[in-house]
Structures are given as C-alpha cells and as structure tokens.
C-alpha cells in the first residue's frame, strides 16, 4: 500500500540519505546496531553513521537504536566559502518537498575550520534561503510556523556545508523512563553501549554496586528482553506528512512483537545512597521492569552477588563529577577487595580514574576510551572465566 500526501508520496522517497549521530567513541557500536537492524549500506564518519533507508526506516531507527544520539535526514552537502555560495547551495535543496507551509523550522548551526565563522550569520542565511524556496512552492510571503516541527541544522566543517533535518526531537537518550536523576547520571545511550561492550548475556547474573538511578540495569534489561528503547516516547517526525502515522504504527507493532519478556533475568543493583535507590526504583517501575530488577541500599563492601559466572557492570563515583576524590578512590578499593571473593565473575568498570587496575590488583584485559560528557573515561574490562557450555 502507498500512502500519498500532496505532490510527494512515500513511494517516491524509496531511498533516503539518513544519519545516525554518535557520541565520540561510539560510532562503531552505532554502525553495528544499524547492521543488526538490516542496514548494510553504511558509511562511518566522526560523530555519525550514514545509512540508506525509506520513510519507515526513520521510525524504525528512532525506535530501535540504543546508542545513537539522533536520526537526521541528510538534505545535502556542498562547498561554501562565501555567504552567496551558502545561500544558493541551500536554496537548491528540496526543502519544499519536506516542509509544509505551516511548519515550524528553526535553524541551528555549527562552524569549525571554515571561512564562514559567524554562526548566527550562517543560520540567518540558511533560514532566508529556505524561506525563498518555500515561497516558490506555497505562493505566500508569510509562514506562521505554528505546525509540525522540522529542526534544521547547518554544520560547516573545512568549508563544506552539511544540511540536515532532525527527525528525533529530544535526543534518543531520553527514553521516557527517567523523570529524576542522581547527581551524576550516566546517559542511557552510554549505559547501553557499556552493556553491549561487556560479555553479559541474559542467562548470566548482572550486578551494579554503584547503580545510582539504575540506568545500566534498565538498559541491560531492555537488551535482555529485546525492548526497543524508543517505545515509550514520541518523535518530531511523527507529525510529518512524509512519515505518516501508518508507518509509525507498523514500526511500533514490529517492536512490540519482538519483545521477549519470557526470558528470565538476574539483574541486581545497590547503592550506598538511599535517595539514589528511591530514584532507581521509580525509573525501574516506569520502564515496566519492577519485577525483573532487584534493588537495595548497601555500601560496596557489603554486597553479596548471587550466582556464578556473573558480570559486574558499573560506573563508580568519581571526584571530577561528585567532588570527593578520596571517597571515589575508597569505593574502587572496596570493589577490588570484594572481587577477590567472586573469581568466576567478570568486571566492566567505566571510570576516568587511573587507579582502577591498581585497586583490582590486575591489568585489564581490555581498555576502551570513551567520553562521559566531556570527561575522558576508560571502560576497563576484566574477563572472568566463561560459564560451562551447559550453563550458557
């Protein structure tokens, strides 16, 4: 079935140039997620993964990608060293096929290593060029901007302009289950990346002794049950004529059908802060995982993970974010001592501390540099023995 809207239909949009933005260091994970969803024609660049798709894939990518920041429509790239070149290049793009007469279309901008350095001036030129293009299509001089939202971004890098439309709205890390957060929350996208980089599988126990607001635990449970992370939220493109409601319904039905909520999970978290546990309990309830994730108040020195061949995945507190280096180092020291009593467990510790290996009394099997906001961290991987075959 083809859903036709005005002069352009979903059928004529058979191939779109789409972009999944990626936090620094997560590009390879975003690319892997796209390939697992069936998008094989991908090109990875710094901060983004380019892929081809149809209108329904705007919905699917927004619903399913766990580590991407946003899903953008790539409207075009061209060289722009002067404002005249920028204006003509922008006006030549097919804005009139995307943006209706009543749309709200703000313009955001960035410029790096380019001759056009004034971002406000660049944004103004882009806005003017799009308005001129829409005037030709809609035959009007006035655009009320009271309708669906199309956030446009101009990125200038080395004098090349990239023009995009944001389909997501709020960043994809906003899953909808977290209304409150602890003092130093870990973004949901980063938490999911850490879980994906670990050896954890749903048939193994998982424990986070510094669980904070519970983000690592929830993201792990969503992975274990194959829950699409965007199921509980809305997106800007849901209001667009070119991505009709029927396509969103199709993508959501696919996602609901894919849930594997019969898989038993052994996921537990603790934190020394009772307020953090209250916040985590509320987030777990909102995520619909209240029966699957166990939470309790405890210092790391008192934790008692249950089972063998489990996995600790954690983001310990650290001074740069929480303001007390001594407490942060003490927490790592206690975790190292506890690990001695659980030799079959694996440990994945996301921290900027240079002392992780010292307190764990061994060299990490693998270290991966990632960024928590602007803070450089390492994911320290300490691999324990794999479970026997009959347990896996």
Automatic annotation (TrEMBL):
One Gene Ontology term of the molecular function aspect: RNA binding
Transmembrane region(s): none
Residue intervals of the THUMP domain: 57-167
Keywords in alphabetical order: Methyltransferase, RNA-binding, Transferase
UniProt keyword Methyltransferase, yes or no: yes
Record's protein name: RNA methyltransferase
